[in-house]
Amino acid sequence: MVKQKILVTGADGQLGKELQMLPASWPQYDFIFLSRKDMPVDQAGQVKDIFKIHQPQYCINCAAYTAVDKAESEKEMAFHINADAAGSLAAVCKRI
């Protein structure tokens, strides 16, 4: 039986690190943990390529702009990561 794959973005963040404990309790799934360096969610082309390579059945998006204080002065970047990139990621998921 082939394991279903779960791709997790933002693996180096606080939530992503916590989710890295899941494989021990869910051995029936193959987890793929990717950091910003591995798959920058704001780079649509790279996201598509990664999805083509791994062919995940599920995606858990933990990637986010979380510097709350800086978000006030970097509104465009915060919106780009937390809204635009998340929407682009969702579109790739829908196609896959």
Task: Annotate the secondary structure layout.
Elements: E1 4-9, H1 14-19, H2 22-25, E2 29-34, H3 44-54, E3 58-61, H4 68-71, H5 75-95
Parallel strand pairs: 1-2, 1-3
Helix pairs in contact: 3-5
Structural description of this entry:
The chain is an alpha/beta fold. Helices cover 48% and strands 17% of the residues. The protein contains five helices and three strands. The protein has helices spanning 14-19, 22-25, 44-54, 68-71, 75-95, and strands at residues 4-9, 29-34, 58-61. It has a three-stranded parallel beta sheet with strand order 2-1-3, with helices on one face. α3 runs parallel beside α5. It is globular. The model has no long low-confidence stretch (mean pLDDT 95).
**Secondary-structure class:** alpha/beta
Taking the sheet with the most strands, its summary is: 3 strands, parallel
Number of strands: 3
Overall pLDDT = 95
- Spans of at least 5 consecutive residues with low confidence: none
Assembly state here? Answer: single chain
Major beta sheet, strand line-up: 2-1-3
Helix content: 40-55%
Task: Spell the H/E element sequence.
Answer: EHHEHEHH
How many H/I helices? Answer: 5
Distance between the termini: 21 Å
Give the percentage of residues in beta strands: 15-25%
Alpha carbon gyration radius: 14 Å
Globular, elongated, flat, extended or rod-shaped: what is the shape?
A: globular
Brief descriptors of the model:
single chain, 96 residues, alpha/beta, 3-stranded parallel beta sheet, 5 helices
